[in-house]
From TrEMBL, chain A:
UniProt protein name: RNA polymerase II subunit A C-terminal domain phosphatase SSU72
Keyword Cell wall biogenesis/degradation in annotation: no
Gene3D superfamilies in the record: 3.40.50.2300
EC number: 3.1.3.16
Origin species: Bombardia bombarda
From TrEMBL, chain B:
Domain Symplekin/Pta1 N-terminal: from-to ranges: 95-314
Organism: Bombardia bombarda
Coiled-coil segments: none
Location of this chain's protein in the cell: Nucleus
Source organism, top-level taxon: Eukaryota
Protein name: Symplekin/Pta1 N-terminal domain-containing protein
GO biological process: mRNA processing
Record Pfam families: SYMPK_PTA1_N
GO terms under cellular component: mRNA cleavage and polyadenylation specificity factor complex
InterPro entries (UniProt xref): ARM-like (IPR011989), Symplekin/Pta1 (IPR021850), Symplekin/Pta1_N (IPR032460)
Keywords annotated in UniProt: mRNA processing, Nucleus
Amino acid sequence: MEHPNGDASSSGAAQNGQREDAGEYKLKFCTVCASNQNRSMEGHLRLAEAKFPVISFGTGSLVRLPGPSISEPNVYKFNETSYDSIYRELEAKDPRLYRANGLLNMLDRNRVVKWGPERWQDWQIGRPRVEHKNDQGSDGMEGGIADIVVTCEERCWDAVIDDLLSRGSPLNRPVHVINIDIKDNHEEASVGGKAMVDLANSLNKVASEERAKIGASAFDSATGLGRSGFDERVPDVLAEWQERWPNLPSTWTLAWF
Amino acid sequence: MAAAAPVKTLSVSEQIQQLNGARNLALENAVYYDKIVKGILPIIGPSSPVELRRWGAEFLAESLSTPVLSTRDKENLTVAVLETLRSLVESPNEDPVVLRASVIAAASAYPVIMRWIIHNSYHVESWEHISAIKSSIMRIWDSAATPVRLCCIKFAQRVVLAQTASNGTEQKYNGLDVSLNMIPANHPLLDPRALEAEASGLLDRMLGILQDNSSDALFVDATLNTLSILIRSRPGTSSRITSVVLNFNPLKLANSPMTPKNKVLVRSMEKTTRMLLIHLLKRDQGNPLSGRIQQQIERLMRSRAEIFDDANRKRALAEQPAANYGDAKRQKLEVGVPQLQIPPLPPGPQSLATLFTLTNNVGLQGFDVTQVPAPFAARICVKTLASIDQRILDQAINGIRSRLGAFYVAAAAAAAAAPPPSEQQPAPINAETAPLGIDEDDDDYEPNFYAAEDTEQILNKLDTAPPEKPVGQNTEASATLAALGQFKLPPPPSLDAEAVAKVGQVTASRVFGPLSVLEEPPLRKPKAGINRLAASSYDREAWLTLITRLATRSTAGLEDVNGKVKGEETGDALDRPRMALSNMIREMLYNYVLEDWRRRIEVAVAWLCEEWYNDQLTKRSQIDAPLHYEKWALRLVDGIVSYLTAQDKVLTRFLAEIPELSRALLGRLKSLCSDPTTVQLALTTLLYQVMMRPPVREIALDTVADIWSEYEEARPLAAKYLVKWRPGFIESQTRAMEAGNGDTNMAVAA
């Protein structure tokens, strides 16, 4: 008895040191845009800074970034190219152009958030993400599952839903998929990032409240509100959020992983 | 069981930290799952603290569904946890979080256990456990907390999936491929027909929410999002589910008030339904219902557009303020009149500014218009008024009017402290903006009590409004409003004579403005007969009539009756700018005629007729006013004469039609005879007067005679007429001349 006891307390102390807000309940988020570069990464960073567990993806077939002309985009493969390598390539190609259009700035931000752009369709949902320890927002995402998916464009929402329908929901886990229409430029992405954090905070507040109704006692005394759960309150939160962000039209559904 | 041992001496949070460590181990290496899962089972049972049960149930749900373990690996694990899972599900009044995770775990366990039983029919115990779990879940499906009930739907889906025949198109992983096909017909425990019947019943229960056309978006979405794989890979369910989905109307809720939440719900259900249909159309092209699916998708998109169009449009404008400044690419081109939203005023005293504020933009509301320089503001106003759509202006005016009406009604109601009649209730209350709004809960709507409620609400509003004195006394608001009625324009600056003259000139020139716009009269117009009324046809001719009469009626008061007197007193040089308005108009009329005299000769005739008539009136009334006819007739002839050519028969007509001819007037024709080409014109014109106007025959003949004697070149023609109309004249003249000539001849000879 002695030995494992001491063992446990030491490991407990170590974990305490790692996570100061260990007691606080945090919803897990997943942000999605087309190329996992601008809008989803802005959201990823903002949510991570707000201490939410978060991962991010793109739904496009390839990572597309603006090139010297509209017909010559810079194209990269998902999952195989790091932000850092893209940064270095573009910097070598035409530093003036890519600094002026904000790409280098964006990639510079992205490369400190995580390694590289990931494709939604290639994501094996539920596969542990223990190898992503250095990603921002990885804390809490070890299980590889999110409670809330936030897409940044109707097209991406459609792609996510279609993909989830195709997968056949093997994990049996409900997930709220929320689209926020954000235009694909740096300014709008920044506004969208703020709106995402606002949404995350609002949802998390409700989720914590529901989670705090511990045990059968809460369930017993349940009349109306006591019985409601987090899921039920999501549309309310979203409606209130939409009033606050009328320029970011949203769509929501409850889907399954 | 190393993990279980220390538990008893640790606090719950310490235990959870320890458990998290164990979980991380499993996440890093799936090999540990088996050990860890089995190790934690003793500490997560129904008797453990709720935190541990939550952690445990969630860990079970995660473990049983993890993609890193194969179905075979999971069999072992799943069989091991069944008993614990059963105890959690069956435990009365279990915590919803525990229950939810347990149901998720059970959904993952079900196909795995079924597959296990198919191959290991001796293990009756497992089948008993999972059957008990199933019936517990069926029992709580309708009564548990919402998150649990949602997962019950998913559990039912997994049961249906496992207990119906597959077409083999599903992915072979995570138990999705477990189906009725795998059960041998003679299985000792599993009866395929009974299982299929059970699945059919469960499917009915799942689809019930759609068949009832529920508006509970959460359950509708959750159900719809489980159906895809059933339709695609379980042909036995396919057509049934598809037709239920096709008959489901996700837009039903749109008929109730569109609160922000209802918008979210309607949009969600519509989009989820449509996504499922689009998905089926794409992935399941063999579906015999494809045609209907396509139709339904289009119908949904149309209805959605109708319902949300208005909102989208508004958003589009708010989103793109740049659109107003020529961002043509993003501009929406619309033909319809945009509806102006004029929210009624909140109760309480209002400033004049709020009364007239129509914008919802907070930034604009705060803008102090008085900072704009007045001339600039005036220009903006004029330009805006010139370009604004009349219908929008009307909407705005009516909006303000109803606000004012509402204000007075509310004030009157407060004064009388009596319920106003319901139809007096002012501007409709906008549910989204009214602060003390109508109860938004649609269920409470009782039409019979509607009016009563309204009255009560108004009174409530008035009660809660800041104290207001009756209208008779000076409340802050009525004072500001009353100030409006008493406003007087400052007296205009006094005008001196020159300014009057200048302004008069501008006025006169404006009178001519419409002439260029008015259309030409048709070439042949029906004769209106003797009863026609002048200036009643509103064409160019009518306007000209108006102008000529404006110029020529001294009775209109435009005449400078005392002009002569003043002229004598102050001298011509000073008097000129004071030219009377009528003379200014005459001057312009003259210019107008001369600009294109060949075509405007009729105007000249009409004008001169009016002048002549006016002169007659002046003479008769013996006012000491100047006469104009002669003067202007002479000016007109003088103006025309120098431009006349041999072809200009209008001269003949002009002189024939003007009311009075004088010696001086006809004398002007003489000058034509100095040009051989116009001699004939002049003489024919005179001849016409001689023949057709007996009163002026004599003066016309005198003129001809003058021509005969003054212009050598005109003599033959003039002689011809004179011979006919004044016989003996030439002879007498010739004789007189010969006498005269004789003298001169003699002188020459001498």
